[in-house]
Each structure stands twice: as structure tokens, then as C-alpha cells.
Design goal:
The chain is α/β, with parallel strands linked by helices. Helix content is 27%, strand content 24%. Helix 1 runs antiparallel to helix 2, helix 3 packs parallel to helix 8 and helix 3 runs parallel beside helix 11. The longest helix is centred in the last third of the chain and has 17 residues.
Length: 486
């Protein structure tokens, strides 16, 4: 009787799904009837307690149209916009894979939550302008029936950037570009700066730019959870697991210059289950690399950068994790409630945090002083030696500040030109990138998600032209540089 039941349950005609180990192994039935089948086995087995199959309800689907690797704010934004812009409801099966659903090391939750329009590249300004509109009207985009509205806690206090005599011409040029794109930014002389913000020491400042509207900071966690909640309500699948392998087909071809290249297409993503050696293969049509600081590793899984130096096949995705410190201090005599997010000529920055004289800030280290990104341990000496002296010089009240706490987080740092990579890979033809934003991914996430959905569903960027941010610029050596990066 048992053998007959096993034959009936595991016949070739019965649908199954693939919970596999590296050595192969059994496939478990997932069509909703396996529970009934297990009961029959329990009756047939002596003692009635045999449990031959594990519950597979936690597994990702065996098939997905689009697999998004990375469940941070960029990944969930892409998922949301794909569902929002699909022409027919439930036309797309979208899967988001995230290895750490607690987001304990994710860049999103560890960000300071700033958003600014003060960039020098028109596309970055346009990304900010749309994203701030999204944030200001967040419940028009992300409301879910019978769920409480989102409170993004947007503080529109603006950004205040300070420039030395050497960098003043660059700032003037940047503000001209910003105004051409529709941003409301003004220039302040040292005298005007002192009149508007009396707590600022203007020594060494030749010019300042100040965002009059649509700049400030917000709650990153609220945006992440809002995007995730809305996307899942629209039918997006989520899997807690790690992508460990990308299986591709290869088609050799010869270019017009006689160079032989291999065109790859990923057809299966292996998702390793948490705390297990088992993995789930997911067949797919499109893979989106939104893995943030770890997107370089995901690119390597697809074979990107594995080839002769100087060739397109040998061009790697130049994204790596960079550790950044954020410090929180208390200073009752510090700048008041209308203080903007200030960035000093030295690169040190700060903003108000809540009420009662608390502030947070930090400074990016020099290239030769980059800390080891293997962990998120905070270097408190860095504040004492590299951050506090600049803060105290610029804001004399900060001479008496007291540090209360600190944390470290990751930038998905693009070592080539510190700007995002958006769009497809030229040789791995169904891998798309949405990574490498080098510190401004959070603030641009709503607009980047929309852009990714446009190129996937419509074949082109129909609202903001992000073609300059394509992968091919690394091979061609064409940098897209921000002037006066902060």
C-alpha cells in the first residue's frame, strides 16, 4: 500500500517544486495537495508519524518573470513601479530576494535620510525633483487599503553647502544648472550667510548655496517599509534568502572588429534558504542587480568582469562597500530648529536630529584612510581627530558638544565616478543594474525605480534620460562626474 501511495504521489505527472541541496535530492510537491498526500502516508506508515516532506510554503516560486536581487529601498522601488506600470494587472510575476530582512547592515536603514537638489548633473537634479514630489505625496502613491497612512516625517529645512574661494566658481556653475532644471536654490555671500545663520563662523567661506524648498531629510525606514508593503499588496513575491548562483546560457559571436565575445542569458537563479544548505532554483527572464554595496559580487556571479583586461568581457562592475560613520551628539547651545543640513568646506556635515539640542553628522574619509569594510565597528577616534575640529571651527557652539552614540553603515561606492549604474549589461543581456549610487541611492530611489520599470516595460527611459549612467561607460572610460561631491 505504501509503495502504491508513493508511486501515485511522485508520478511524472504530478507537479512539483524544487527544494534542492547541492547534491540534487528530492523535489517536494507544492500544488496544494501535498498535505493530503502526507496524511495518506501517515496512515500507511507504522505509528502514523512519518513526515517525509518539509513545508515548502516559505520557498520562492519556481518561475518568475523578473527576479530583483536586493530588498533595500532601490529593489522595492523597482518592484513597486513594475507593478504600477504593468499594462494588465498580475501580468508580471516579480520576486524580490533579500538575505537580511532585518536590514541590520543595509544602507537604507543606516542612512541619515537626506534629500537635496544641489547636484551638478542634470539627471541627478531631475531624479531629486521627482523623488521629493513622491515623498511629499507618499500616501497618494503607497497607500494600502485598511492600513494606516505613512508618516515620512519630512523636514524641509534645506541643505546649506559652503565653498572656499577655490571652489566658489564651481558652486556658481552648479547653481546655474540647478535653476535651469527648476530647483529653487540661492547663493549667499559670507555677509548674507552670517545674517541668515548667525551661528555660522564664515572664516574661509567665499560662497554658500542654500536650498529654498524641496530639500531636507526624512525617515528612511518609513520609505522602505512603505514601498515593501505596497509592492507586496500588488502581488510582488518576497524571499528571505541569498542568491548564490546564476545559471546562464552562452552564445558566441564575433563583433564587427573581429573580436569574439560571448553573449550570456541568465535563465535560472539559485536562492539559498536561510540557515540551510538547501536552495531553490528560480527560472526567470530578467534579473535586476539592486544588491547595493554587494552588487559587485552579484555581477561576478554572472561572470561580469571575467575576461581579458581592456575588453568588454573583462570590464567589471566597479562597486564595492565603503564604511561610513554617523555620530550623534548633544549641544543645548547649538543651532536652532531652522538649522539646515550643513556641509562644510572640509566635507564635514551635520543636521539637527529631533528636538532638544541633538545633532548627527560625520565626514567621508580621505581615499588613503578608507576604513576596513569587513565590519560595522565605529572608530570614535575618527570623530575626535577628523570631524569635531571642523565642526567646532564652523559652529563655535559645538566646542562643548558631547557625543551620545554612533553607528556605521555602507555606501554602495562606485569607484569609477561615484554615480549610479542604471540599465542593462551589454553582454549579459538580461541582467539590469540599479546600484552604485555612492550615497544618494536612498534619495533617488523613487525616481530610479520608475526609470527601471520604464526601460523594462517600454524599452526606453521615457521620463528622465539615464542613458549616461549605463554600464558601457566603464569600458569606454567615459566618467559621469559630479562637481563638488558631498
Amino acid at each position: 500500500m505504501l509503495r502504491r501511495a508513493l508511486r501515485l504521489g511522485l508520478s511524472r505527472g504530478s507537479p512539483s517544486r524544487g527544494l534542492r541541496t547541492r547534491g540534487g535530492g528530492p523535489r517536494a510537491d507544492s500544488n496544494g495537495k501535498w498535505t493530503e498526500f502526507k496524511k495518506k502516508l501517515q496512515v500507511a506508515w507504522p505509528g502514523g508519524s512519518w513526515e517525509p516532506f518539509a513545508d515548502t510554503s516559505h520557498l520562492p516560486p519556481e518561475h518568475a518573470d523578473i527576479v530583483i536581487i536586493g530588498g533595500g529601498v532601490i529593489g522595492w522601488s523597482v518592484a513597486y513601479w513594475l507593478k504600477r506600470l504593468e499594462t494588465r494587472k498580475n501580468a508580471l510575476r516579480v520576486l524580490v530576494v533579500e538575505r537580511d530582512p532585518t536590514y541590520s547592515q543595509a544602507s537604507t536603514g543606516l542612512s541619515i535620510g537626506g534629500i537635496r537638489q544641489q547636484f551638478s548633473i542634470p539627471q541627478n537634479i531631475q531624479l531629486s525633483l521627482f523623488s521629493i514630489e513622491f515623498l511629499r505625496n507618499i500616501n497618494e502613491f503607497l497607500a494600502v487599503p485598511d492600513e494606516p497612512p505613512l508618516d515620512i516625517q519630512f523636514n524641509p529645512s534645506g541643505y546649506l553647502l559652503l565653498a572656499s574661494e577655490e571652489n566658489a566658481p564651481v558652486m556658481e556653475h552648479n547653481v546655474k544648472v540647478q535653476r535651469q532644471e527648476g530647483a529653487q536654490v540661492c547663493l549667499l555671500s559670507p555677509e548674507q550667510l552670517k545674517n541668515k545663520f548667525p551661528w555660522v563662523n564664515t572664516e574661509g567661506v567665499a560662497l554658500a548655496s542654500y536650498g529654498l524648498e524641496n530639500e531636507g531629510w526624512f525617515d528612511p525606514w518609513c520609505l522602505l517599509q512603505g514601498l515593501r508593503r505596497k509592492a507586496m499588496s500588488m502581488g510582488v513575491h518576497f524571499s528571505h534568502g541569498e542568491v548564490t548562483e546564476l545559471i546562464s546560457s552562452v552564445s558566441p559571436m564575433v563583433t564587427s572588429r573581429g573580436e569574439q565575445v560571448n553573449i550570456k542569458r541568465i535563465y535560472e537563479v539559485h536562492v539559498k534558504m536561510n540557515n540551510s544548505l538547501e536552495y531553490q532554483p528560480v527560472e526567470c527572464a530578467i534579473v535586476i542587480n539592486a544588491a547595493g554595496a554587494w552588487s559587485g559580487h552579484v555581477a561576478e556571479l554572472a561572470g561580469i568582469g571575467i575576461g581579458p583586461p581592456g575588453t568588454l568581457q573583462g570590464t567589471r562592475l566597479p562597486v564595492e562597500p565603503r564604511k561610513r560613520y554617523v555620530y550623534v551628539w548633544h549641544c543645548p547651545q547649538g543651532p536652532g530648529l531652522e538649522a539646515p543640513l550643513l556641509t562644510d568646506v572640509s566635507g564635514a556635515y551635520f543636521r539637527r536630529e529631533g528636538l532638544g539640542g541633538y545633532y548627527l553628522g560625520g565626514c567621508s574619509p580621505a581615499e588613503e584612510e578608507e576604513p576596513d569594510p569587513q565590519d560595522l565597528v565605529v572608530d570614535h577616534d575618527f570623530f575626535q581627530e577628523k570631524v569635531w575640529p571642523h565642526l567646532a571651527q564652523r559652529v563655535p557652539a559645538f566646542n562643548s558638544l558631547k557625543v551620545r552614540s554612533a553607528w556605521a553603515g555602507y555606501y554602495d561606492y562606485n569607484t569609477f565616478d561615484q554615480n549610479g549604474i542604471v540599465g542593462p549589461h551589454p553582454l549579459v543581456c538580461n541582467m539590469y543594474f540599479a546600484s552604485g549610487f555612492s550615497g544618494h541611492g536612498l534619495q533617488h530611489a523613487p525616481a530610479v525605480g520608475r526609470a527601471m520599470a520604464e526601460i523594462l516595460l517600454k524599452g526606453n527611459f521615457s521620463t528622465i534620460d539615464l542613458n549616461p549612467f549605463s554600464f558601457t561607460r566603464f569600458y569606454l572610460g567615459e566618467k559621469v562626474l559630479e562637481r563638488n561631491i558631498i
